[in-house]
Amino acid sequence: MSAQHRHASGPAPHSPLTHMSFALIAAIAVLVEVSVHAGAALDGWRHQPTWNPLVLAIDLARKRVRWPGSATPVLIATAALLTLAGAAFAIVLARRRKGPAHPDRAARLLGTGRQLEPVSIRTARHTAQRFGITDPGLPVARAVAGGQILYATWEDMQTDIAGPRRLKTSARAIPTIASAPGACFATSNKPDLYAATRLLREQHGAVWTLDPEAIAGEPPGWWWDPLSYVTSDRRAIELTDAFVGAYRHPDARPDAFFDPAGQKLVANFLRAAALDGRPITDCYLWTTRPHDQTPATILEEHGLQLAAASVLSQVHAPR
Question: Mapping DSSP to helix (H, G, I), strand (E, B) and coil, where does residue 188 land?
Answer without folding.
Answer: coil
